[in-house]
C-alpha cells in the first residue's frame, strides 16, 4: 500500500514538472518602446 502511494506521488510529480515551465511570468506587453506602439487601435483609422 505504501509503495503504491509513493509511485502515485512520483507519477504526479513527473507529469506536473513539465507543465511548470510553460507560460511566461507577468502580463503580456507589446515589444518595443512605449511611444512607438500603435496597437490597439480602432478600425477604420481616423482621417
Written account of the structure:
The protein is an all-alpha fold. Helix content is 40%, strand content 0%. It contains 1 helix and no strands.
Task: Please outline what is shown here.
40% of the residues lie in helices and 0% in strands. It is built from 1 helix and no strands. Residues 24-47 are annotated as: Disordered.
Instruction: Extract low-pLDDT stretches.
Output: none
Strand content: under 5%
Tell me about the largest β-sheet.
none
Rg from Cα: 23 Å
What sort of overall outline do the alpha carbons produce when their principal axes are compared? rod-shaped
The number of helical segments is 1
Mean pLDDT reading = 81
* Proportion of helical residues: 40-55%
Overall SS class: mainly alpha
What distance separates the N and C termini?
74 Å
Total strands: the figure is: 0
Q: Element order, helices and strands?
A: H
Which SSEs are present, and which pair or pack?
Elements: H1 2-20
Which structural traits does this protein have?
mainly alpha; 1 helix; 47 residues; rod-shaped
